[in-house]
Design brief:
- Helix content is 38%, strand content 20%.
- By secondary structure, the chain is an alpha+beta fold.
- The chain folds into 2 domains: 84 residues; 239 residues, Bira Bifunctional Protein, Domain 2 (BirA Bifunctional Protein, domain 2), CATH 3.30.930.
- The strands form 2 sheets. Strands 1-5-6-10-9-8-7 form a 7-stranded mixed beta sheet, with helices on both faces. A 3-stranded antiparallel beta sheet has the order 2-4-3.
- The longest helix has 37 residues.
- The protein is elongated and about 105 Å long.
- The chain starts with a helix and ends in a 6-residue tail after the last helix.
Length: 346
């Protein structure tokens, strides 16, 4: 066996390697798991005990010789490839910096909303996205089997008791349970509704809701708060209108509209004449509002004879579309780099 090892040492030294194919042939013949060196190590157990030490030393020399040649030839071939390709790699050059991502337009608007309301005394509250029927519907004055429950197509998780929240009003309920008036908070977050995805709707979107409960809170306070918000976010010439509406948790109730032509009511700068956002009216609904229903206050342990309050809720996507004249709501969730890069300097 020692003669065989010495013969292989000579073969390794004489093996010509001038390209990658020959390098791979060398590796497969001598170093791979099924190569001759591995086979000889397997045969070592058949060598008489008195010869194992010397044979083992020779096998280690053979293995080292094969590995050293593989490494040296690999380095030679790589250096030759770099030289033929042009200038050698300059390892002293500074690395190319990684491109930083941009803040998503929804996040930018979210943070701006928090900033505007924060300056007038509203703090931020958060709550779970998986919610009970009580906090999402019943405590908000949705009776069982009431038609108002059909206004929001719901994703139910466990029968009719556990669901994905359809609005962030569940945070209002939790807040009024744990904190007594005065309460002045906004609740931004993600919500879910079983709706067909289109340019105007999505099954996953974001809302910001607000709640103000104290003594002698009036509808005039609600209107002035939302006028202030609209002018801060869209500009001092922003046009806002309130339309009478119905929500189980507020009375009286009103929907909030902003002209999609901003200070040009009746125009449609947002949808560019396609009418896919404002339906040709020149106005875009951004949310609902109203005075907190006495039943809701009672469900949360607040005396409606002593306290009143207002609440509002707006879609962050719809506000972002209006602010940046985005015509298709689906763009927010498609991760189109060309779309997102437009907001690098905003």
């Amino acid at each position: 066996m020692q003669d065989r090892i010495k013969e292989l040492l000579g073969e390794i030294e004489a093996f010509a390697i001038s390209n990658k194919e020959e390098l791979e042939q060398f590796r497969l013949r001598y170093i791979a798991k099924k190569g001759v060196v591995t086979a000889l190590f397997d045969e070592l157990k058949t060598v008489p005990a008195e010869e194992k030490r010397s044979v083992g030393q020779l096998l280690n020399q053979l293995k080292d010789a094969a590995m050293d040649k593989l490494k040296s030839k690999t380095a030679e071939l790589e250096a030759a490839a770099m030289a033929s390709a042009g200038k050698p790699l300059d390892l002293t050059l500074p690395p190319i910096p990684n491109e930083l991502g941009t803040i998503h337009p929804l996040t930018q608007v979210w943070e701006r909303i928090v900033e505007i309301f924060g300056r007038i005394g509203f703090n931020v509250e958060d709550g779970p996205e998986i919610e009970s029927d009580w906090n999402n519907f019943t405590a908000l004055n949705f009776p069982d089997n009431h038609p108002a429950r059909e206004m929001q197509d719901t994703f139910f998780i466990d029968g009719k008791e556990i669901l994905l929240r359809t609005h962030t009003s569940n945070v209002q309920i939790r807040l009024m349970h744990k904190q007594k008036p005065p309460i002045r908070s906004i609740m931004p977050g993600r919500v879910y509704r079983n709706e067909a995805i289109s340019a105007r709707a999505h099954c996953i979107f974001h809302q910001v809701e607000g709640l103000y409960v104290d003594k002698n809170v009036s509808f005039a306070d609600l209107k002035q708060t939302l006028y202030h918000f609209a002018k801060e976010l869209f500009g001092k010439d922003t046009q806002v209108r309130f339309r009478p509406s119905y929500f189980p948790f507020t009375e009286p109730s009103a929907e909030i509209d902003i002209s999609c032509g901003l200070n040009r009511p009746g125009t449609c700068a947002l949808c560019g004449g396609s009418k896919n956002i404002c339906k040709g009216t020149g106005w875009v609904e951004i949310g609902g509002s109203g005075m907190v229903h006495p039943n809701v206050l009672e469900n949360c342990g607040i005396d409606p004879e002593e306290f009143t309050g207002f609440a509002f809720g707006m879609g962050i996507e719809r506000i972002t579309m209006l602010k940046y004249q985005i015509r298709d709501l689906r763009l927010f969730t498609e991760n189109d780099v060309q779309f997102l890069r437009q907001f690098e300097t905003l």
